[in-house]
Design brief:
mainly alpha, Four Helix Bundle (Hemerythrin (Met), subunit A), binds zinc ion
Length: about 110
């Protein structure tokens, strides 16, 4: 592999490892708020807070997981490394840093991140 090109097998390995990590994270059971018995108002409030924080983290993980899965599909389709917004190739250094990044740097900047 020459400089500046993407090694799809390496990308796949990183993606699969990340998918496993995210799935393990998301696989932890979350308690249903409706089935909780609260000892006190204060305990109830802190439990709700913790649950919301937990849910926010899960949302992030879920978004990451969907990006990882989209990147794996793109690898299979042979479109891996193509910006989902403008269709131009994503810089290999960018993919090396974050193998599941969906957009090129220009589009990511425009999207505000
Ligand atoms: Zn783009």
């Amino acid at each position: 592999m020459g400089a500046g090109s993407i090694d799809p097998e390496r990308a796949r390995a990183s993606l699969l490892a990340e998918r496993e990590r995210l799935m393990a994270e998301l696989g932890e059971p979350i308690e249903n708020p409706g089935q909780m018995t609260y000892g006190s108002q204060a305990a109830a409030a802190s439990q709700v807070f913790e649950q919301q924080r937990d849910l926010a983290l899960r949302d992030r993980s879920r978004i990451d997981l969907s990006r990882v899965e989209a990147a794996l599909r793109a690898l299979d389709d042979g479109t891996y490394g193509t910006c989902t917004s403008c269709g131009k190739p994503i810089a290999p250094e960018r993919l090396e840093a974050i193998p599941w990044v969906p957009m090129c740097i220009d589009c990511a900047r425009k999207a505000g991140r």
